[in-house]
Amino acid sequence: KAPYQRGQLTGLEYIYIGPDAHGKVTKRTGTDIKGILANTLRPIFTSTMVSVTDFGFISYSDQPPDGRSVSNTHGHSKGVLMVDKTGDQGVWLLHSTPRFPLRDQNIFWPNGGAANAQTFICVTFKYDQFRAIGNSMKPTCPHVYPLTFGRSSQRSLCDLSFKYSLSNISPVLLLTVGDLYVSIASLPEVNSDLYVQTWLERSGTPAKSFCPPQGKKVQNIESIHVTGLGEWERTKDHSKWCVATDQNRPWTCIADVNRADSQFKRRGGALCIMDKDITDTFSLFVMRAELC
Description:
The protein contains 6 helices and 17 strands. The protein has helices at 36-45, 47-50, 130-137, 151-162, 180-186, 276-285; strands at residues 4-5, 9-10, 13-16, 24-29, 55-61, 78-84, 89-95, 120-126, 144-149, 172-176, 194-197, 218-226, 230-233, 241-244, 251-255, 268-274, 286-289. Strands 10, 11, 12, 13, 14, 15, 16 and 17 form an 8-stranded mixed β-sheet that branches. The protein has a 5-stranded antiparallel β-sheet with strand order 8-7-6-5-9, sandwiched between helices. A two-stranded antiparallel sheet has the order 1-2.
């Protein structure tokens, strides 16, 4: 999603990357009740759906909609998990937007949500994979707020909160304390230099590009360019993502945490996907990076 830019962008336009429209700029805004976000979240807006026996969801955020302060012992992470046992599938929406989503389809977007650029990744999984997803999320200790689940979903959703085991799921889920992006670059599956976009925090010390004599480089993106939307600086971009520079390893990750000293003590993770079209699209967003 683009940031607000006076006279140029309302801060609600977005670019959609999916199997049917890689890199398509949409004129619909993020707040549109007929748009992609609203349609994805429709089940949690619908009172009849949240009472269905086989449907359940949890929302988690370090900046929840009610504005309450969340302890730093919880992960710096935001997202929604929805499962439908009858349909044998579920959705994981990982995002970077504070105070999102409100439980009202007409006003689900938060006040102030237009100011900065944000990212959202939505992945559909089979129903039986959600226990593995939840177990793997346990180390991040996400702050979960209003939890709703049907009777049949109750066991698997409760299990998500209390067990941890390593599981092989795709896309890859990564969890760490420290510099998440250095860890990603060093993974055998990725093994590539990275360009990284994260929020330039106003408090604390931002981490410089990581350029060791040996090993993989992690370079901070300083400005973004999106065809059809324009250009903006890192100071206007609250999104968290990285893209591999090795064309033979086309990995893109949407993540939870920023590259800042204060964040290296916070828990967080990333959803990573190996897809050439997605990686090519994200690579084109990089207008200028911080040199080593």
